[in-house]
Amino acid sequence: MMWELEEIPASQPKMIHAMNRCCDCSSIAIKQKASPVCMPTGEPSPVFFCSAGREFEGEEEYLEILGITREQSGKYECKAANEVASADVKQVRVTVNYPPTITESKSNEAATGRQALLRCEASAVPTPDFEWYRDDTRINSANGLEIKSTGSQSLLMVANVTEEHYGNYTCVAANKLGVTNASLYLY
């Protein structure tokens, strides 16, 4: 038996920006798997580096992040290098989505006839939507009450406090991944 050898031509390294077919790794839910972010090709096989503030190097052909956390959000730089040509570098931004958590809820003391402000802040990606409740009834901006929600913060303002305004209020923060709430008091 005689073997015939075929010479494989050398080629420069290239980085293929390939997202996993089952998820868009540029925006992924917390605790899920992000894989692959980038895949190198070339002959001879390129050495693969990928970083998000720290360097990875490995035999694998792609980077896989298992049980991704919020802290792993950021810009990843993937580099494929071999001795044929200069390295090819691609960047991908990974955004980790997570449900809201209330980071601050501030009750307030206000005398009748004065202005009062209740503040609620929540951390979430995507940014949460806010709703306010009093005794299980949703509050709208009307009758001296004004709700202002911007980004991760929502304010409930009472223009002229009366005895009827005193009591428990509930701030609800929600996005597509979850809902949370906090009780605040006006006294």
UniProtKB/TrEMBL annotation:
Keywords: Disulfide bond, Signal. Transmembrane segments: none annotated. GO terms for cellular component: axon; neuronal cell body; plasma membrane. InterPro entries: Cell_Adh-Cytoskel_Orgn, Ig-like_dom, Ig-like_dom_sf, Ig-like_fold, Ig_sub, Ig_sub2. GO terms for molecular function: axon guidance receptor activity. GO terms for biological process: homophilic cell adhesion via plasma membrane adhesion molecules; synapse organization. Residues 100-187 form the Ig-like domain. This is Ig-like domain-containing protein. It comes from Bambusicola thoracicus (Chinese bamboo-partridge).
